[in-house]
């Protein structure tokens, strides 16, 4: 289970979108795998798929990008 703020690392492909490791808000206990046509953008040790892109305009995130540390 990931609940609260956890560390997420951008992949090589993800560095175009996320410049450095991030502390992001999580609230889940499920993980996922992505199809080969998707590009992994962010990861961590507990749930390897944290962010991905499918094509030029479709993104998926395991974390909540709408919640920021400033909101704590």
What layout of secondary structure does this protein have?
Blueprint: E1 2-10, E2 22-28, E3 39-43, E4 51-54, E5 58-61
Antiparallel strand pairs: 1-2, 1-3, 3-4, 4-5
Question: Which structural category do the helix and sheet elements fall into?
Answer: mainly beta
Which word captures the global form? globular
Mean pLDDT score: 94
CA-to-CA gap between the ends? Answer: 20 Å
Strand order of the largest sheet: 2-1-3-4-5
Residues in helices, as a percent range: under 10%
Q: Main sheet, how many strands, which sense, barrel? A: 5 strands, antiparallel
> What pattern of helices and strands is seen along the backbone?
EEEEE
The number of E-state strands comes to: 5
Low-confidence stretches: none
Number of helix segments? 0
Strand fraction = 35-45%
Q: What would you report as the Rg, rounded to the nearest angstrom?
A: 12 Å
């Amino acid at each position: 289970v990931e609940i609260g703020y956890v560390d997420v690392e951008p992949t090589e492909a993800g560095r175009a979108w996320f410049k450095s490791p991030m502390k992001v808000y999580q609230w889940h206990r499920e993980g996922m795998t992505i199809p080969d046509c998707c590009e992994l953008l962010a990861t961590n040790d507990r749930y390897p798929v944290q962010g991905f892109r499918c094509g030029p305009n479709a993104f998926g995130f395991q974390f909540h990008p709408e919640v920021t540390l400033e909101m704590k």
